[in-house]
Design a protein that fits this description.
With 405 residues, the protein is α/β, with parallel strands linked by helices. The chain has 2 domains: 104 residues, Enolase-like, domain 1 (2-Layer Sandwich); 263 residues, Enolase-like C-terminal domain (TIM Barrel), CATH 3.20.20. The strands form 3 sheets. Strands 4, 7, 8, 9, 10, 11, 12, 13 and 14 form a 9-stranded mixed β-sheet that branches. A 3-stranded antiparallel β-sheet has the order 1-2-3. Strands 5-6 form a two-stranded antiparallel sheet. It is globular and about 65 Å long. It starts with 18 loop residues before the first strand and ends in a 9-residue tail after the last helix. The structure holds magnesium ion (MG). Magnesium ion binds next to loops. Magnesium ion (MG) binds next to loops.
């Protein structure tokens, strides 16, 4: 067996650092944000974030038994060690990798603080000083996701007028790129399982997209997300029907497992097709990139394996001339980790922001000004990911029944 444990003894003394503790705190935003801290004997604490979902804090807790005593500067080796150690316990993808992602981000933050460098510098330097953000929007009251299930609002919330009004509001906030959900309750008629869209359902979606495009004009980038609902034929019909609106992309039209089906949909339309947020590690995205099964790839760094693994995916995407637009529903911690990534990869396009309804989102970190201004985030020059948690705000929104820092 390959041994990824710490056998690297030859180290300059100032960089001979050990991990002393790892902790998690689940903060209740519009999603459950799994925040992770990695403490060291150098007095530096790294902060990271894993994508939501049950079991992540428990998996992070488990890693303590082999990560304590390790050197946090060996970020890439420790990611492999986590996957290796956990592979006999839960496999090499899935939640194990989600847990590893947040630890990996915390290690980059710790490494940056230990070396007095921003994370983008550790990733190889920057291509841009600001990272462009697209805002995830919901029409009217639209739907809320609670406990992983979709709760739909009343029909009025899904009118083309409601979508257009929300688009106008968000554009007036300074965003130059938007995304709405386009999967609706009506998609379940007449059958909730077969993924076929009726002509009426497609027409309703066309009217929504037309109304938004008319409201915001052609210069604002506009994407729609369908959350893996449709059959191949319905996906192709919808994507072709929307071609005239020159979308930034249409996302997750079909379920995520079948690469050939994805390729079939992507090839069938000139509407750019995006997918990738619920795939794990580079292996689950490689075929999609080398077969041109996707026009824009959208891995989630807090799911897919952290910043290093997303860099590897971005490399493969660049090799195939495909842009990368990371999925992101994080607190400011995961978001700012993605900002460093966005700075450091040449083929980066836009980064998601998904917390418009959380009015204390910025308060979670110590700073005086909002992170996002006029639809962009400035790439921080401070060491690490460049933001620190406001522990009072973390505590105020800690998920009941879960541990705090
Ligand atoms: Mg999505």
């Amino acid at each position: 067996m390959k041994d990824f444990s710490n056998q690297i003894a030859n180290r300059e003394p100032s960089r001979d650092v050990e991990i002393t503790d790892i902790n998690t705190c689940v903060v209740e935003g519009n999603f459950e944000w799994n925040l992770i801290t990695v403490e060291t004997d150098a007095g530096v604490t790294g902060i990271g974030e894993s994508y939501r979902g049950g079991g992540v804090p428990e998996l992070v807790e488990y890693t303590k038994r082999f990560l304590i005593g390790e050197n946090p500067l060996d970020v890439q080796r420790l990611f492999r060690r986590i996957v290796q150690e956990m592979s006999g316990h839960g496999g090499t993808t899935g939640k194990v990798v989600t847990a590893a992602s947040g630890i990996e981000i915390a290690l980059w933050d710790a490494a940056g603080k230990l070396l007095d460098l921003p994370v983008y510098q550790l990733l190889g330097g920057k291509f841009r000083d600001e990272v462009r953000i697209y805002c995830d929007c919901h029409a009217g009251e639209a739907y809320a996701v609670d406990d992983g299930y979709t709760e739909y609002a009343d029909a009025e919330a899904y009118s083309p007028e409601a979508y257009a009004a929300e688009a106008r509001r968000v554009v007036d906030m300074g965003f130059t790129a938007l995304k709405f959900d386009l999967d609706l309750e009506a998609d379940n008629d007449p059958d909730p399982f077969n993924g076929r869209l009726t002509n009426g359902a497609i027409e309703h979606k066309r009217e929504i997209v037309a109304a938004v495009r008319e409201e915001i004009g052609s210069e604002i980038d506009l994407a729609f997300d369908c959350h893996w609902d449709y059959s191949v034929e319905s996906a192709k019909r919808l994507a072709c029907e929307l071609e005239e609106f020159d979308l930034m992309w249409l996302e997750d039209l079909i379920p995520p497992e079948n690469m050939n089906a994805q390729k079939e949909v992507t090839k069938a339309t000139r509407t750019p097709i995006a997918t990738g947020e619920n795939r794990f590690r580079v292996h689950e995205l490689s075929d999609l990139l080398y077969d041109h099964g996707v026009d824009i790839v959208t891995p989630d760094p807090t799911t897919v394996g952290g910043l290093g693994e997303t860099m590897r995916i971005a490399d493969r995407a660049e090799e195939n001339y495909i842009p990368i637009s990371p999925h992101n529903v994080c607190s400011p911690i995961g978001t700012m980790a993605c900002v460093h990534l966005g700075a450091a990869i040449p083929n980066f396009d836009v980064l998601e922001y998904h917390a418009l309804e959380v009015d204390w989102w910025d308060d979670l970190v110590e700073r005086d000004e909002p992170l996002i201004r006029d639809g962009y985030v400035e790439v921080p020059e401070a060491p690490g990911i460049g933001v620190e948690l406001d522990e009072r705000v973390v505590e105020a929104h800690r998920l009941e029944g879960t541990a705090g820092f």
